[in-house]
Amino acid sequence: MQHLKRTILKAAGGLLASLALAGAAMAQAFPAKPVNLMVPYPAGGLSDVIARLVNAPLAKQLNQPVIVENLGGASGAIAAQKVLSAPSDGYYLFQGSPNELILSPLANAAVKFKSEEFRLVQIVGAAQIAFLARKDLPVNSVDEFVDYARKMAKEGKPVTYASVGPGSFYHLLGEHLSKVTGIPMTHVPYKGAAPANQDLIGGQVDIYLAPFGKMYIDLAKDGKLKVLAMLNNERLESIKQFPAISESKQVKNFAFTIWTGYFVRKDTPEPVVQTLHKALTETLNDPGVHAGLEANSLLVAKPMPLAELNKTYADGTAQFRAIAKSINLQPQ
After folding, report:
1. Which of 44, 114, 271, 283 is the most buried (most CB within 10 A)?
2. How far apart are CA 132 and CA 119, in angstroms?
3. What is the DSSP letter of 244?
């Protein structure tokens, strides 16, 4: 019996040693080919801008090309599902947020994955949210908009708001705005930021609660749209020409941001995750990436260790599920 126990223990020790060596070999071998960076929206939006700021410095860190792949639809769920359908070897990196990975499964009955099937590897930053309006909307502040929206609802012509798809963060913001003001509003979903912007500029939709980018400063200057406010608690120096939502009287507590990060499948081997985490951390410390993110009005994130990232993702999942529940979001 003692001989059998020693044999079993020896075999188990050998197996653990083999697994450790295999993990180390995998870490050394990864990546041995180009890495795909999946962006869940069409080219032209802020997500695409972020990816193209990051991909070249990340490629330098990994010593392999990083190929940006744009795939829009279903509030980012189509791209997310493609990552889940690929092997869990780290060669498909998903650039996303709670918008695609937490809210989409809650809103779209066709989305079958769960948030927990992904693992957060690093956060790049948080997007400020702008309260945008079409250029000819007869309002110049958030309070004027609330009064106008109330008037239009009473006339049976509710204002419209754009989003990047049902169940997206921007859909929830619109629904939440409708709820806190008690004013009916009509949701108009799009497949990404670019088509939503196009229709806002074209006057086809009234407002868009959107991730803020530098282009909106130029569009506002050119009179192609209005920036009524930023959904911040205070006016930031970098964009001090736009009021913070806290300066309004009717919705002063309506402050929100949303972070963007890099994800892999949850079952990706730990050595691969550590390699990607190290490369992304170095990439986010790159002065050019830092400057590019700030130039696009993103709040640059401080790189976090993996344990803290795990907690952040779990906490974010709970938070956004609570918001969805508060507005009675139902899968469609």
Report:
1. 283
2. 33
3. B
Among residues 289, 275, 284, 286, which one has the least CA distance to residue 52? 289
| pLDDT single digits (tens) 137-147 | 999 999 999 99
Q: How far apart are CA 111 and CA 60, in angstroms?
A: 35
Among 258, 308, 264, 282, residue whose Cα is nearest residue 98? 258
> What angle (nearest 5°) sits at the alpha carbon of residue 298, between those of residues 247 and 292?
140
Tokens of residue 119, six digits? 């693992």
Count of Cβ atoms closer than 10 Å to residue 10 Cβ: 10
Phi and psi, residue 90, nearest 5°:
90, 0
Residue 207 in 3-state DSSP? Answer: strand
Answer yes or no: are the C-beta atoms of 173 and 198 closer than 8 Å.
no
pLDDT tens digits for range 266-320: 999 999 999 999 999 999 999 999 999 988 888 889 999 999 999 999 998 998 8
User: Tokens 């188990």 correspond to what residue?
Assistant: 12
Per-residue b or e along 13-29, where b marks 16 or more CB atoms closer than 10 Å to that residue's CB: eeeeeeeeeeeeebbee
Residue 225's SS3 state is strand
Domains of the chain: 33-127+258-326 (3.40.190.150), 128-256 (3.40.190.10)
Please name the residues in contact with 96: beta carbons below 8 A apart, sequence gap of 6 or more: 40, 76, 79, 80, 260, 261, 263
Query: Which residue blocks in the chain are alpha helix, DSSP H?
Result: 2-29, 46-62, 77-85, 98, 104-107, 142-154, 169-181, 193-201, 215-221, 270-284, 287-295, 306-326
Among residues 90, 258, 283, 64, which one has the least CA distance to residue 168?
Answer: 258
- Summarize pLDDT for 214-265 with one digit per residue, the tens: 889 999 999 999 999 999 999 988 899 999 999 999 999 999 988 999 999 9
Against a cut of 0.90, is the pTM above it?
no
